[in-house]
Amino acid sequence: MEFGEKSAKLVDYLRFQGIGEKVLDAMLRVPRHLFVPPNVREEAYIDTPLPIGYSQTISAPHMVAIMCDLLDLRVGQSVLEVGTGSGYNAAVMAELVGSTGHVYSVERIAPLAEFAKKNLMDVGCANVTVMLEDGSGGDFPHSPYDRICVTCTAPDIPQPLIEQLKPGGLMVIPVGVAFQQLYLVKKDADGTVHKDIKGGVVFVPLIGRYGFSDG
Ligand code: SAM
Q1: Residues 6+ apart with CB under 8 A from 114
Q2: 107 confidence band (pLDDT: 50, 70, 90)
Q3: Homologous superfamily of 3-201 in CATH?
Q4: Which of 31, 97, 116, 189 is deepest in the core (most CB within 10 A)?
């Protein structure tokens, strides 16, 4: 079966899981097989995480879909992603915010940041900037953001990330160790923050100043 056909089957499967059409269309436009190492390319359209080296993974397609759906991404928005990995999730979000929007994605492992940059360039994705640093806190360029997507699990929701969310903004972030839960964080126009749990998840850890320690 061709990659295009496999991608269409995966998207059909995700549609039956309740994922919205906007996100499904974006996923159809991003070739996941070009974001994984050659040894796992044939598995790119199975709904599973896959190894990308350095003990890290590209998230399962349903997880990317759920996070993008919860974020309700709109054309023109600016997005911070913590955990670039392969660059795939950034590319899907970049499709959703369009050419007038931008995704700023932070990765702490240098070879993965380079892997993601190459993958994004190969698919012609021009509205993602990959940055090499600890994304758990800090003050990133172009902050505050309309949306923040954290793709690794944190011990708690880092306060610096809440501060980098615009009023009216949304953040998704997995929290926990043995039992992880996906949080949707909403910041109201007046700055009030609401935290809703959206379900159990499994992610690699957020390592850094406001994350877990390395080793
Ligand atoms: N979004 C990725 C994709 O589409 O391939 C998958 C991300 S993978 C599940 C989690 C990533 O978070 C790993 O690449 C890991 O190195 C990165 N990470 C962990 N702690 C980090 C931190 N403090 N800052 C930036 N990246 C971090």
Answers
A1: none
A2: very high
A3: Vaccinia Virus protein VP39 (3.40.50.150)
A4: 116
Expressed in angstroms and rounded, the spacing between residue 179 Cα and the centre of ligand 1 is: 19
Domain boundaries, the chain: 3-201
107 C-alpha to ligand 1 centroid (Å): 6
Reported as type and span, the H/E element at residue 128 is: strand 128-132
Ligand 1 cavity residues, CB under 6 Å: 56-59, 82-83, 85-86, 88-89, 106-109, 112, 134-136, 151-152, 203-204, 206-208, 211
DSSP H or E segment with residue 115: helix 110-122
Cβ-contact 97, 79 below 8 angstroms: yes
- Nearest residue (CA) to ligand 1, atom 2: 85
State the average pLDDT for the chain.
97
Residues 6+ apart with CB under 8 A from 146: 74, 77, 78, 79, 166, 168, 169, 170
Distance (Å, whole) CA 132 – CA 164: 18
Q: Which residue has its alpha carbon closest to ligand 1 atom 19?
A: 206
Instruction: For residue range 151-210, list pLDDT tens digits in order.
Output: 999 999 999 999 999 999 999 999 998 899 999 999 999 999 999 999 999 999 999 999
For β-strands 165-175 and 180-187, DSSP reports them as antiparallel
Q: What is the DSSP secondary-structure string of 153-180?
A: BBSS--HHHHHTEEEEEEEEEEE-SSSE
